[in-house]
Amino acid sequence: MSIVLSGIAWLMYSSLTMFISPVYSFILTLVLGVVWIIVPVVNHIGIFIAIRRHNRNVVEAVSGNNLSVIFRREKKAAIDMIIVIGVLLICLAPALAVDISRSFFPDRFDYLWLWSNSLVYVNSSINPVIYWVRKSDIREVVKSMLPC
Question: How open is the CA angle 139-91-41, to the nearest 5 degrees?
Answer without folding.
Answer: 80
